[in-house]
């Protein structure tokens, strides 16, 4: 629909540490994107089911809850193939073979410019 108020390029930030999540969300908003936040994978899946405008999943690997970020990314790749995947961790650096097809990895701590470059490389 032309001229609609539909959100575009919504980034879903999934991080169980509240301050880290808020910081990442603020950085991404400062880069000009809409952001939705989730504290765990279950909440993220619920949001993906209800907000079709989500175009990017930005998730930490190590999280409390029913699944970690790599498993979440695999589920998202299977259920929502168009959603771009950006995975982060300050503890792990997963081999490419362990990540879903097309996923990108950015190590923590990351600089705003690095995050911007990764989001742009996802076609945003």
Written account of the structure:
The chain is α/β, with parallel strands linked by helices. It has helices spanning 18-30, 41-50, 69-79, 112-121, and strands at 10-14, 34-38, 54-60, 84-89, 104-107. The chain has a five-stranded parallel beta sheet with strand order 2-1-3-4-5, with helices on both faces. Strand 3, helix 3 (69-79) and strand 4 (84-89) form a beta-alpha-beta unit.
Evaluate the radius of gyration: 13 Å
Name the strands of the widest sheet in spatial order.
2-1-3-4-5
Helix-strand topology string: EHEHEHEEH
| Major sheet description | 5 strands, parallel
Uncertain spans, ≥5 residues at pLDDT below 50? 1-5
| Coarse structural class | alpha/beta
> β content, as a range?
15-25%
Distance between the termini: 20 Å
Give the secondary structure arrangement, pairings included.
Blueprint: E1 10-14, H1 18-30, E2 34-38, H2 41-50, E3 54-60, H3 69-79, E4 84-89, E5 104-107, H4 112-121
Parallel strand pairs: 1-2, 1-3, 3-4, 4-5
């Amino acid at each position: 629909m032309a001229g609609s108020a539909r959100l575009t390029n919504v980034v879903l930030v999934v991080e169980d540490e509240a301050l880290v999540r808020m910081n990442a969300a603020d950085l991404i908003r400062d880069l000009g994107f809409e952001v939705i936040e989730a504290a765990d994978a279950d909440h993220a899946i619920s949001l993906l089911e209800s907000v079709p405008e989500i175009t990017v999943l930005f998730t930490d690997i190590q999280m409390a809850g029913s699944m970690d970020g790599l498993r979440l990314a695999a589920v998202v790749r299977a259920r929502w193939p168009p959603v771009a995947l950006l995975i982060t961790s300050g503890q792990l650096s997963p081999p490419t073979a362990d990540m879903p097809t097309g996923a990108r990895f950015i190590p923590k701590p990351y600089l705003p410019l690095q995050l911007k470059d990764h989001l742009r490389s996802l076609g945003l």
